[in-house]
Design brief:
Layout lengths: L28 H46 L3 H7 L1 H12 L6 H23 L2 E4 L11 E8 L8 E6 L1 E4 L2 E4 L1 E7 L4 E4 L2 E4 L1
Parallel strand pairs: 2-6
Antiparallel strand pairs: 1-4, 3-6, 4-5, 7-8
Helix pairs in contact: 3-4
Amino acid sequence: MTDKPEDSETPEMPGAEYAIPPGEVLGTPEECAEARIAALEGELAALKDQLLRSLAEAENQRRRAQRDRDEAVKYAAAQLGRDLLNVPDNLRRALEAAPLADDERDAAFRIGVELVERDLLGAFEKHGIRRIVPMAERFDPNLHQAMFEVPTADHPPGIVVQVMQPGYIMGDRLLRPALVGVAKAMPGEAIAGGVNTVV
């Protein structure tokens, strides 16, 4: 006796999923049509769901790309602004170091430096870069950098009492924190409920 070689799988014919399995009784033409309609409606619903998901994903990608473009435009000047932040600081130092207007030449120098400083700060404002000078404000670690503490009874603890260098913010992004001195309670004083009381 010779063994018969096993039949290799034959490729499935198109429409085979709709073929009637052997031994199954074929229903009436109306039943067959209803079964075919139900199968097609199920396939249509699945394809419709897939299409809606694809459209939603495309819309989400479009929104993400638009948001990235808007942020790129909004913060395009951030790096240039960050590089220029020392210029107004140096102009302010020049004004503070310049002699008072004793003659026309000193007065013209001061006026020229003030005009340049004002123009530069105006250009910053035009591009959304704002100066932070938090004198007498509560210390905010998100916007300020404490350089030292000043024991004082004149201000409650946590209040900025000296600004060494102004900070700058662009939109909601911090370009440079303000360098500040912060008030603290005098030695021998305790804080109860945010109010200094002598112990």
